[in-house]
Amino acid sequence: MEMLSDRIKNMAESATLAMAAKAREYKARGINVISLSLGEPDFKTPKHIQQGAKDAIDEEKYFAYPPVNGYLDVRQAISEKFKRENDLEYSADQIVISNGAKQSIANVFQALINEGDEVVVFAPFWVSYSALIELAGGVPVYVNGGIESDFKVTADQLAAAITPKTKALIFSSPCNPTGSVFTKEELLELSEVILGHENLVVIADEIYEHINYTGAHASIGALPGMIDRTVTVNGMAKGFAMTGWRVGYIGAPLWLARACNKVQGQFTSANCGIAQRAAYTALTSDLGPTREMAKEYLRRRDLVKDLLDSIPGFKTNLPQGAFYFFPDISAYFGKSDGETSINNASDLSMFILDHAQVSVVTGEAFGDPSCIRLSYAASEEDLREAIRRIKEALAKLS
Ligand code: PMP
Fold first, then answer.
1. pLDDT tens-digit map of 280-295
2. Which domain covers residue 195, as residue numbers?
3. 261, 283, 305 — which closes off a domain?
4. Same domain, 22 and 128
5. Ligand 1 binding pocket mutation candidate from 14, 17, 102, 171 (most atoms within 8 A of CB)
6. Ligand 1 pocket: which residues have CB below 6 Å?
7. What is the pLDDT of residues 112-142, one digit of tens each?
């Protein structure tokens, strides 16, 4: 007997997690798989942040249910961070802390969307946006920035995608999966379109803020007239190597922050108290370790760019942030090694796993079926070996 809801039956499985599971399966069979499929920093959480959590345990003050939206002093620290680093004015009661930025985004869609509402999604996009929109009863409307335009959607494209049903727009900058970064000028052009539509909220996912090689992260919410229209999503996972601590947060217009608080109060209640204390330490300390990690990612970006460009048929942009490459590999479509035919990016990802023992993710999951995504949050040794194997395996295709 199977009694699953239509909602769950229709829901896409996270492609990145599915690929990671497949890679683990191979590893369990003793196969030496190099995993470039997950967005997972390979650094340890900096020591002073670990210490913040240890101190919190020793203080024995943080074992009870925290307020649903997070401890007040942590929300105040986030409010100050927004002001100091991003020129964003959100008071502490406009902040909601959640179990990762993923839950932050899920809350926002649950709070905003009625059945049939449209959400413009800049593509390529982070895999979970579409599933979370659909789960809330919304309809994702994809607008594609192609590799020719560094994967960036223009203001004109945005304007053309907006209909009377459009409730929100979501994008990430720096972008997962393309590494593209919107400049302040580009965001200004987008904001002019947004301000022309009264009932349109922007969800700006800035979780890769600190992994930005342009030297200037710009927040759309800081632009004239935009703060009342913008939900800024951020979190500890990427910039502080804290994926497993599960701390994400939003700054939002008060009416929406309150609604997210209400949603979260029913789904999960507050995020873990000790994890919040670790986040507090991170948010109130010097960003030195974060800057060091970003420097290392930049070094790897340059290395991987050269290595990928040496593979025939790979077309890459030069990512300006995050830690992914999203090469266009469509030159391989229609090729075969005599046994396996490559007809799409999923075929190529499987071919790479089977023949190079490297896990990557098909671009279909991110809204661009010509591409695959590789994460370079891995050691230099693994990156060199992985790309060497990929190149060798692909040479069998003709
Ligand atoms: N947004 C983007 C663009 C991401 O890449 C990720 C993590 N892969 C998230 C949000 C979710 O972050 P968290 O781990 O805090 O849930």
1. 999 999 999 999 999 9
2. 66-283
3. 283
4. no
5. 102
6. 39, 100-102, 126, 172, 176, 205, 207, 235, 237, 243, 248
7. 999 999 999 999 999 999 999 999 999 999 9
User: Which one of 14, 99, 176, 210 would you pick to mutate in the ligand 1 pocket, going by the greatest count of ligand atoms within 8 A of its CB?
Assistant: 176
Is this model's pTM higher than 0.85 or not?
yes
In ligand 1, the atom with minimum distance to the C-alpha of 16 is 8
Domain C-terminal end among 262, 283, 304: 283
**Most ligand 1 atoms within 8 A of CB, residue of 36, 122, 126 to mutate:** 126
Residues with Cβ within 8 Å of 145's Cβ and at least 6 positions away in sequence, in order, are: 122, 123, 124, 151, 152, 153, 154, 157, 178, 180
Residues 379 and 270 in one domain: no
Which residue type does 381 have? Answer: E
Q: What is the pLDDT of residues 333-350, one digit of tens each?
A: 999 999 999 999 999 999
Q: What are the residues facing 141 on neighbouring strands? A: 120
Long-range contacts, stretch 85-90, CB < 8 angstroms, 24+ apart: 85/209, 85/217, 86/206, 86/209, 86/217, 86/219, 86/221, 86/222, 86/232, 87/219, 87/222, 88/219, 88/221, 88/222, 88/227, 88/232, 88/251, 89/227, 90/227, 90/232, 90/251, 90/252
CA of 211 to the centre of ligand 1 (A): 13
Going from the Cα of 283 to the center of ligand 1, the distance in angstroms, rounded, reads 18
Which ligand 1 atom is nearest residue 246's CA?
15
Q: What pLDDT shows up at residue 110?
A: 98
Q: Are residues 250 and 226 in the same domain?
A: yes
